[in-house]
Every structure is written in C-alpha cells, then in structure tokens.
C-alpha cells in the first residue's frame, strides 16, 4: 500500500524488451534506498513494481504485458521522468489516502490553466470509472494523491499547488497527455458490499456493478 505522497522524481534509465513484456531500470534521484531490499514494492507513476535488483543508483523491475497494456507505461521512453513512492510502513504518516498501486484506467488531460500560483487541470476519466469520482473525494493520478475539486460527468477538476508541481511530474502535464488513474479503494469495496448475496452469483456480470439503483437499494434493505 501507498499514500500517494510522492517522495522523489526518478528517471527511466534503461528499457529492455523481455519475451513480450519489459524490464526497466529506474534511477531514483533523491529517493532513500537504504531501507529497500529485493522484493520490496515501489510505486512508479502510481504503478506498484517489485524491486528485482539494486544497482546503487536505483532499481530494476519487471513490467508485465498486462501493465503495459493498461497503464501509461507504454508511453515511457529512456529519459522519461516518473513519480516515485516507497511502500508505506505501520509508522508512515498517511498524508494522502490509501493507494494500492493498481491502476484502474487511463485518464486524459483535457485542459490546463494558471490559477494564481496554482495550476488547474481538467481530466477525462474512462466512463466506467466516473461513478467512483466524487466532489472533494480523493483520486490517485500518476501516483499522486489529489483532491477532486469538481466533477462533470466523466471529467473532473484538479487544483495543483506550487509545491506539488515542483516535487512531481505535474509540470509536464499538457492537454492530450495520458495519466494513470486509481480511484478510491473504499468506493470500490462499498459498491461490492452493496450487492450483498448477489456478489456470489456466478451469473452476475461484474461490469454491471455501476447499475445500482434506488430500487435495488430498497429491495435489498438499504432503504426504508
């Protein structure tokens, strides 16, 4: 698990094709690796990767074909900057929100505009994720825990303060850029919980989980 508070900006140093997937070497910059060992998890642009080698100035990790197909990793190239966060510990301050490092989908930057010293972005989420995004709720974008300032359909607004711009890859975001999105895990579990016994029905189509209606809630005892 992670918090979405970025600890360092790293750089893709090497990319090696490996039997259809990819092996990456990531230079970690100011990230403290003194407590990192083989097998540990580090979030890279919000994607949880496993450390398989520690050459000293960073780490190597394997990236599966599944990850390449469903994240912005397919846009990376040698020299690309990436947001880095080590996995949390029991004593870590939870400054952001609980983040699993499992990307739910790709968003697209729709607009960018200056707002005093901050930057405002509009981001288009996949339609199937829109139900999990709420006004003043949390969302993880390229590994960064952010607050949703407004929502209109599948488009949501972000207000990024100067510190976050300086300490992450936010400054590189421009309209058209694809970003990794992870919705609030609590929203996902709550939706599944509301299904009750229907969740165990093998005939149930999980793609319909977003079709919970007031009638469904009343029928299953959630409304009086």
| Helix residue percentage | 10-25%
Contiguous low-pLDDT stretches (5 residues minimum) are: none
Shape: globular
Mind telling me the C-alpha Rg? 19 Å
Q: How far apart, in Å, are the first and last alpha carbons? A: 37 Å
| Main beta-sheet strand count, sense and barrel state | 7 strands, antiparallel
CATH domain class name of the largest domain:
Mainly Beta
Using the 3D structure, state the CATH architecture of the largest domain.
Answer: Beta Barrel
- Give me the strand/helix succession: EEEEEHEEEEEEEHEHH
- Calculate the mean pLDDT score and round it: 91
Q: How large is the count of helical segments?
A: 4
Query: What spatial order of strands do you see in the largest sheet?
Result: 10-9-13-7-8-12-11
Annotation, overall tally of beta strands: 13
| Beta strand % | 35-45%
Class by SSE composition? mainly beta
Can you give a write-up of this model?
Its EC number is 2.5.1.9. Pathway: Cofactor biosynthesis; riboflavin biosynthesis; riboflavin from 2-hydroxy-3-oxobutyl phosphate and 5-amino-6-(D-ribitylamino)uracil: step 2/2. The protein has 224 residues and is mainly β. It folds into 2 domains: 8-86, Elongation Factor Tu (Ef-tu), domain 3; 105-186, Elongation Factor Tu (Ef-tu), domain 3 (Beta Barrel), CATH 2.40.30. The protein has helices at residues 65-70, 162-167, 185-194, 214-219, and strands spanning 8-18, 21-27, 41-44, 47-50, 58-63, 81-86, 105-115, 118-124, 138-141, 144-147, 150-152, 155-160, 178-183. Strands 10-9-13-7-8-12-11 form a 7-stranded antiparallel β-sheet. It has a 6-stranded antiparallel β-sheet with strand order 4-3-6-1-2-5. It is globular. The mean pLDDT is 91.
